[in-house]
Amino acid sequence: MRTTRTYHIENVEEIKRKLLIWSKQFYEVVWLDSNSYPQNHKRFDAVLAVDAFTLIKTDSDDAFDKLKDYQENTKDWLFGYLTYDLKNDTENLGSKNYDNLDFPDLFFFQPKRLFMFNDNELQIQYLNMIDDELDSDWEEIQQTTSFSEISSEEIKVKLRITKDQYFSKLNKMIDHIKRGDIYEANFCQEFFAINSKINPLEVYQNLNKISSPPFATFLRLDDKFVISASPERYVKKKGNKIISQPIKGTSKRSANPEEDAALIAQLRSDEKERSENIMIVDLVRNDLSKTAAKGSVIVEELCEIYTFKQVHQMISTVTSEIPHTKSPVEVLRTTFPMGSMTGAPKVSAMKIIEELEETKRGIYSGSIGYFTPENDFDFNVIIRSILYNETNQYISFSVGGAITAKSTPEKEYEECLIKAKAMRTVLEGDSN
Using one digit for the tens of pLDDT, what is the confidence trace for 393-412? Predict the structure, then answer.
């Protein structure tokens, strides 16, 4: 049983900062913030879930079945993540590449404390509240200092593979495409730092300030952190409607308005970028059809251009309707991993990705999100994200892009650097 209080908030951003500082006392934290980005499908402006009442944490073996049982038995708010390596549960695949982050493959928890922002309204929900616990916490939050005391060290970021190695691996992937093994695949490379310490919350605040994406995330699981400036929705369920919004196609921004408008026009008409996007739209349509009512899969937007602080992106919106008897977890199982981070055909692409990439993706190109008590859900794509294992003192972020027959290693490498810029800036303190 959840106890609910609703408060009118004058300074929303200040309360958000105080709330995040207050959340540092908990070992299970999920913060999701839309940064007031204009979009058609958000449930709330921001939400904080902390303090596990129950939880599930598992490797990839039968992970979706375990999640389905947990979600159906709990029938409450659940927050957590799916790692990319759950592909090993849905297909006969493996993950043997290097990993120094050690995230469990799947994690969800039922929060004791929930804070949901919409406009100037804050709704607080507490599970099994003890006496006046909610009211006393709210007083404590308002009195919390909105500044973090510990600053991060300046970090020296390294690349897992050299530029020449990147070119060589990309050419091998293009050879696979020319042989007809795949049509498209997402190839990623890791940037990392060893023996390094950061203040995760400070890094999140700095990354969010320069990116302000619609799917910003701060996640803590014990000594592991996700600091994300993701612009991409993986999939959302609202009632019987399923919404997926894959991103394929990226352009840099310009401070000059005329040049920026020209970059938008160039991206909109770029034959290669449109081809990448349309191929993934076809893959998403096929994935959604596995649970959809007959004839209900629709492309609502095709290759629309969305503008963010750091980049312009090409985004499509694909929707479907599912029978009311269909399990929400089944929608995730049949669409995961998302097409924008794999390729087509999906299984062949994932095999080649595993062969050519140097590190285990883990939570990168996985998803963070939530289930509601009404069986709805919303999940993002973990890209533009810094991952941190505090115990191992290991920091990692990966970037990549879709590779097609028309790809050139030089342009793909340049796109990687554009995508890496915000993460590298907040870690190294260098805006160049």
Answer: 999 999 999 999 999 999 99
Tokens standing for residue 5: 């209080």
CA 335, CA 361: separation in Å to the nearest integer?
Answer: 18
Q: Residue 148 pLDDT > 90, yes or no? A: no
* Gap between the Cα atoms of 274 and 249, Å rounded: 7
Domain at 2-428: CATH architecture = 4-Layer Sandwich (3.60)
Whether residue 199 contacts residue 148, with contact meaning beta carbons closer than 8 Å, is answered with yes
Cα separation of 132 and 125, whole Å? 13
pLDDT digit string, tens, across residues 253-281: 999 999 999 999 999 999 989 999 999 99
Helix (H, G, I), strand (E, B) or coil at 392: coil
Rounded Cα–Cα distance for residues 87 and 239 (Å): 26
317: closest CA among 333, 336, 340, 337? Answer: 340
For residues 137 and 131, give the distance between their C-alpha atoms in angstroms, rounded to a whole number. Answer: 12
Rounded to whole angstroms, the Cα distance separating 298 from 288 reads: 10
Euclidean distance between CA atoms 352 and 172, whole angstroms:
10
The size of the chain, in residues, is 432
d(CA 212, CA 36): 9
CA nearest to 108, candidates 153, 144, 73 = 73
Residue 228 near residue 368, CB atoms below 8 Å: yes
- For the chain, the structural domain boundaries read 2-428
- Residue 94 is classified by DSSP as -
Task: Supply 165's token pair.
Answer: 């190695």
List beta partners, residue 117: 46, 122
> Residue 8 is which amino acid?
H
Q: What is the pLDDT of residue 43?
A: 87
What is the pLDDT at residue 131?
Answer: 74
- Quote the DSSP letter at residue 304: E
